Amino acid sequence: MAQDATVTWLTQEAYDRLAAELEHLSTHGREEIAKRIESAREEGDLKENGGYHAAKDEQGKQEARIRQLKELLRNSEVGEAPQSSGVVETGTVITAVIAGDEETFLIGSREIAGDSELDVWSEQSPLGAAILGLKIGEKTSYIAPNGREIPVEITGVATWGGE
């Protein structure tokens, strides 16, 4: 099942944070989980050993995150947040009226935002794809996963400041 790799825009800070997470998970994280599995294994019967199964499940999740981070970092474009020119593009903070409600969100990868409370919409999402390239004041609509057509008006485009 081959997929085309999607290039993800990241700030240098986001790239460094993700690379550090990958380094930790690939070294100390693997060591810690191996010790927990070994400790649980020593408790006896693996068939009914909840600690062993929980540790193995956590190991699977950790390995999945390692694969995700490797792929993300391999297919990332690192640079400064684009300076807002009033046009919706990856890495900008958008204010829009969506179905009558004003919302502010970042267009890009959740990984860009880090610990920020700001909502993030992928540029591949129905909303993200519909608004990319629009200017302040322009209107469009997109089809939600439930089949409803949702109107959108762009009311602001700002430079991502990392908050």
Write structural notes for this entry:
With 163 residues, the chain is of the alpha/beta class. Helix content is 40%, strand content 24%. It is built from four helices and seven strands, in the order E-H-H-E-E-E-H-E-H-E-E. The chain has helices spanning 12-41, 50-74, 110-113, 126-131, and strands at 8-10, 76-78, 92-98, 101-107, 119-121, 139-143, 149-159. Helix 1 (12-41) packs antiparallel against helix 2 (50-74). The two termini are 37 Å apart. The model has no long low-confidence stretch (mean pLDDT 85).
How would you concisely characterize the structure shown here?
The protein is an alpha/beta fold and 163 residues long. The protein has helices at 12-41, 50-74, 110-113, 126-131, and strands at 8-10, 76-78, 92-98, 101-107, 119-121, 139-143, 149-159. Strands 5-4-3-7-6 form a five-stranded mixed β-sheet. The protein has a two-stranded parallel ribbon with strand order 1-2.
